Amino acid sequence: MEELKNLEKNGNYEELISRVRDLVKEDVRKLEDPYVKSWLGKRWRNLFITEAAKDENAVAVATEKKLFGGSDDRDPRQKVALRYLRAEGPDEWSNEYPKLDKKPIQNTTLVFAPGLLTGLLPVMAFQDEFPLVESEFPIRILQSDSHPMRGCEANVSDLLNAIEKGRGLDAHAKHIEEGKEQPPGDIFIISYSKGTPDVLTLLSKRPDLKSRIKCIFNWAGAPGGSYLANSMYESLKDININLSEELAKILTLISPVIELPQKVQRLPEYDIKGAILDLVTTKREEFLEENLKKIDELNIPIFNITGSTTAMEVPYFQIQGVMELNKYDANNDMQVTQRHSKVNTPIATDLAMLHGHHWDISYAPFPQRMRFGSPNLDHPFPRKAALSAMILFAQEMGFIS
């Protein structure tokens, strides 16, 4: 590893990238090395900064408005780094690492595992960004049609429908018509929120998939559950819920921005208590204690990307939750603490702590009628830049081709 450190010190980045890629290709357990982890974090953040600096809206949001002293003439890279990254990231904007061009991804499909409430909120995760990214690389994007409100084991079937049969949603969040499914071959996964415990449950049930899953990006996931789910489950566990009559009322208690369609799809499959229970921290700890070592032995690279926010940056109806989580971790993302947001295995690697709340980093702006007067549902985070950085990173490391 001293050789790698010297390559970085001397600015021989292309050779460093090549050497790290070869090391990991030869033995994925090289991801256990602290220096390799450190370099990969720097590399992903650099790719993100480069892509975010191309986003005019992201740069505009990151531009400071001064009452005195003239315009903000900082480099766009510096603006986006300071605005959208926490921890080490804001100081890395001037690193001149090799730039990457988008190249077609021909042999690997991106499978997205969504979180709780998917399809019940006013927007879908990455709804504007997936079509753009799919077109620009190009790359095939397949979204699991995961049920918005049931337990992890139950949602394994939805993930398998995508991975084995090609069933689910396309990049435009449209259901793939029966008869037009295209089962993917090799895949890499981006899992969001409850999507991460869903995916970990899948791996515990189907370790045979390890040869097809090239890597996993744990995007603001909740592998350790959430303290907020603990209190929510306590308030719901003794309630007898009549789904046909009380679903909307109960879901509104979970989040006021939920808007049920006139015809609720898959109503008999709703298991509100089961879904929340599977996000209770003790339940997740029990699962991880039993399964995490076996999941690590599958040798699938896992990359953690987390969020961090403050009470002044979230919707007003989420402030109480942030204040509750602040008792445990001031860098929570309004739903999950840093500890509970990461998969902690020897080869899992932390890539970045983003400056954005749990919805900001994944969802498009909510419609004005669904903001309830809150100023923090405009969601300016450069999501396309983050998606592009994940794909470029996986391609550069040789996980996808």
Provide the number of structural domains. Answer: 2
Number of helices: 15
CATH topology of the largest domain: Rossmann fold
What is the string of helix and strand elements? HHHHHEHEHEHEHHHHEHHEH
- On the 0 to 100 scale, the average pLDDT is 95
Query: Tell me, what is the CATH class of the largest domain?
Result: Alpha Beta
Please tell me the CATH architecture of the largest domain by its name.
Answer: 3-Layer(aba) Sandwich
Can you walk me through this structure?
By secondary structure, the protein is α/β, with parallel strands linked by helices. It folds into 2 domains: 2-91, no CATH class; 108-396, Alpha/Beta hydrolase fold, catalytic domain (Rossmann fold, 3-Layer(aba) Sandwich), CATH 3.40.50. It is 40% helix and 10% strand. It has helices at 2-9, 13-26, 34-52, 56-62, 76-84, 129-136, 152-165, 195-205, 227-236, 243-254, 272-277, 281-296, 319-326, 338-341, 383-396; strands spanning 108-113, 141-143, 186-193, 213-221, 302-308, 349-355. A 6-stranded parallel β-sheet has the order 2-1-3-4-5-6, with helices on both faces. α3 packs across α15 (383-396) and α4 packs across α5 (76-84). The radius of gyration is 21 Å and the shape is globular.
